[in-house]
Amino acid sequence: MQVMLGLKGSADKSQYMDRLQYHPDVFEFFTQESDFTKDGLKNLRNAIGFIQDNAIKKIILHHPMRFHHDIFTELIAPEKNCPELYSFIEQSTIDLLQIAFDLNVQVLVHGAYLRQTPKYIAMYPSFEDAREAAFTRMDHFSELGKNHIMFENTISPIFSFGNPKDENEILSHNYRLAFDTSHCFIAEHGSNEMLIASMKHLMDATVHYHLVDSMGIKHDSLILGEGKIDWKRVLPLLDQNSKATCIYEINLADPTNANEQIKSHNYLVNLANEISN
Question: Angle at Cα 234 formed by Cα 255 and Cα 9, nearest 5°?
Fold first, then answer.
């Protein structure tokens, strides 16, 4: 059983040089608002080129989480209420997709977040209207991005995994999915049964995984083995979905040191050896 090494970092040289020493199979860039200036986009392209020159071909660009430092990039933010945020989400996604097509990499966009979602839901007549707005926006980006874009689940019911009925609606849109294990686990209140069922149900549509542990209560981003996710059951499903990439998305004490990501990888490698033996 092979365990893929996927690491995450920014376009800051100190971060990606740290990750390169481990020779990862996959690299995911998290981006931020400053990456979308003329110089920022040039720097991001150069960083991607450097990673590719180091024989890493599987690269994902994570759409920025925040706008103006503390505003989450919620897809359901209505244009009429939030014109600046709406415009930033639109243009930044287009910018990333242009890079993706030019350099043959992938773009990851969150279907929703959680912390500020209720504020935006309240801008719609109903929750159902807000959820439909999220699908409309994702349909739009899916059409633009084709096989270069994927959508990640969140803890918010606007775009969460775990409920089979909601998952069927998501599957009906033919999205390429990024599956965050902790988000599903937390959304389903720490149920490994629901996590495993969701991974199986969505496997054919899943092209990327964020491997993160959790206690199943809040967004805690733990090192693998330090939470309550049953990785002995998860690992064979990752192995089964051989088309998908994965990275460890763990909170780092020092962003220039991938220590917590590497600890997570070592945990999974040891578990794979245990299962194989």
Answer: 15
Asked whether the beta carbons of 185 and 210 are under 8 A apart, the reply is no
Residues 6+ apart with CB under 8 A from 185: 191, 192, 195, 214, 216, 227, 228, 229
For the entire predicted model, the pTM comes to: 0.97
**pLDDT tens by residue, 67-112:** 999 999 999 999 999 999 999 999 999 999 999 999 999 999 999 9
> What are the tens digits of pLDDT across the range 143-172?
999 999 999 999 999 999 999 999 999 999
Q: Which CATH superfamily is domain 6-276 in?
A: Divalent-metal-dependent TIM barrel enzymes (3.20.20.150)
- 88 SS3 class: helix
Strand 177-180 versus strand 149-152 pairing type:
parallel
- Beta bridge partners of residue 149, listed in sequence order: 107
The tokens of 259 are what? 């220590």
